[in-house]
Design goal:
The complex is a heterodimer of chains A (about 250) and B (about 140). Chain A is an alpha+beta fold. In chain A, helix 2 packs antiparallel against helix 3 and helix 4 runs antiparallel to helix 6. Chain A is about 45% helix and about 25% strand. Chain A has a 5-stranded antiparallel beta sheet with strand order 2-1-5-4-3, with helices on both faces. Chain A has a 4-stranded antiparallel beta sheet with strand order 6-9-8-7, sandwiched between helices. Chain A has 2 domains: about 130 residues, Beta-Lactamase (2-Layer Sandwich), CATH 3.30.450; about 110 residues, Beta-Lactamase. Chain A is elongated. By secondary structure, chain B is of the alpha+beta class. Chain B has a single domain, classed as 2-Layer Sandwich (Beta-Lactamase). Chain B has a 5-stranded antiparallel beta sheet. In chain B, helix 2 packs antiparallel against helix 4. The two termini of chain B are about 20 Å apart. Classes of the chains: A alpha+beta (about 250), B alpha+beta (about 140). The interface between A and B is medium-sized, with 27 and 22 residues.
């Protein structure tokens, strides 16, 4: 999940900070660091920094906006398992809202957006909803039944739904094969700026199948060891088609 | 690369052949993995900001990196309260920078792109980590 959100001017002036998780940081030190780092990146690579992975636990996803000669940096500190596509989408929404509503205020020196309660509520809402699979409860219940039937087959070990931005349901968050798939989706997105929604990976004598349901949803299944991939794919395809059908009629 | 004498100055008492071997090994790794830079850089104490051993496309980048690297490493050292960060990977559009602290005052840095073989760099570091520790310890 997104643990911290930091918004600052490229000059290093901190304009907003909010912590969402258990992880605490010194926002003044980090603002100074991010500002220096953006300048350094421009000098060395001629481009802006995209993401930064810190060990095996955290990563920082960056975005930038330019408003009347002011460069504003948006930094989301999140868990390393979070989907970069989803964090980018969340930052994009926050960025658009802030520029539209507070663009003029940002230009002033000493601007502190923390005092605007409506901004606080907007950011809280968007961060918390972005971490959950965006699907109607009834529809999700029906889709889970279809996945349960899929898992009952001899070839399939486990299945789950992923959104096209790489979000899983809270009950599926710790599944290792899903984290592996989200990493693949992130890597593909970094390279092509497109969503990876169909792929088969071989992993320790098992297959992980990612199959497109519709533009919002993807099914991901982990097979048992040494199964025939053709049969497993057909089963996943059939389940995806059933879910697409109930999605359309809902 | 003209750095051997500088290394001699900083790591007196170590057989210089070992650093020469490391330099040769790094040159091979740099060519094999198609990186634009790999280096061991001083990040604290009297070697802060100095490139120690390196292979690079552009020597100016090495100097710029070495000077700026402490600015990146030092604020992030205390990012996690529980344990120090063992590596940092920075992603630009097509380029990556990988940083790994070796000792309190020395870090490894690699700059590479999508076509580079990062797995081999990582494996080389893992396989040689204890040798590197012993080599750089005063």
């Amino acid at each position: 999940m997104i643990q911290n959100l930091l918004i600052l001017k490229k000059s290093g002036e901190n304009i907003y900070h909010k912590a969402f998780g258990h992880f605490d940081m010194d926002e003044t030190v980090m603002s100074g660091f991010f500002s220096a780092f953006f300048v350094f990146s421009q000098a060395l690579c001629g481009t802006d920094i995209n993401t930064m992975e810190l060990g095996t636990k955290f990563k920082i996803v960056f975005d930038k906006a330019i408003h009347k000669n002011n460069e504003i940096i948006f930094a989301a500190i999140c868990d390393v398992s979070d989907s970069i596509i989803n964090v980018h989408k969340t930052l994009e929404s926050i960025k658009n809202y802030i520029i539209f509503k507070y663009g003029e205020k940002i230009n002033k020196v000493g601007c502190d957006l923390k005092c605007y309660n409506d901004l606080d509520s907007f950011i809280e809402k968007i961060i918390y909803t972005s971490q959950e699979l965006d699907i109607d409860r009834e529809l999700y219940k029906k889709a889970k039944e279809i996945l349960k039937d899929l898992d009952a087959n001899d070839e399939i070990l486990d299945s789950a739904l992923i959104s096209s931005t790489g979000v899983t349901s809270s009950t599926d968050k710790d599944k290792e094969f899903l984290n592996l798939m989200i990493k693949q989706m992130d890597a593909f997105f970094k390279l092509t700026k497109r969503v990876l929604d169909q792929i088969i990976l071989k992993f320790q004598n098992r297959y992980i199948i990612l199959y497109h349901i519709n533009e919002n949803l993807i099914i991901s299944s982990l097979t048992k060891k040494n199964v025939q991939i053709g049969i497993a794919t057909l089963l996943v395809e059939e389940a995806a088609s059933k879910i697409a059908k109930i999605y359309n009629t809902h | 690369m003209g750095l051997i004498s500088r290394l001699k100055e900083f790591f007196t008492g170590k057989p210089i052949e070992t650093f020469q071997e490391l330099e040769k090994d790094m040159n091979k790794l740099y060519k094999k993995c198609n990186c634009s830079l790999i280096a061991f850089v001083g990040v604290a104490s009297k070697i802060k900001g100095l490139p120690l051993i390196y292979s690079a496309d552009n020597e100016n980048n090495v100097r710029l990196f070495s000077a700026k690297l402490p600015l990146i490493i030092n604020p992030l050292k205390n990012f996690q309260e529980t344990k120090p960060i063992d590596s940092i990977k920075i992603n630009y559009n097509n380029e990556f920078i990988y940083l790994k602290p070796i000792l309190d005052n020395i870090a490894f840095i690699a700059m590479y792109n999508q076509k580079s073989d990062f797995l081999t760099i990582n494996q080389w570091l893992d396989n040689n980590f204890s040798i590197l520790l012993n080599l750089f310890k005063k």
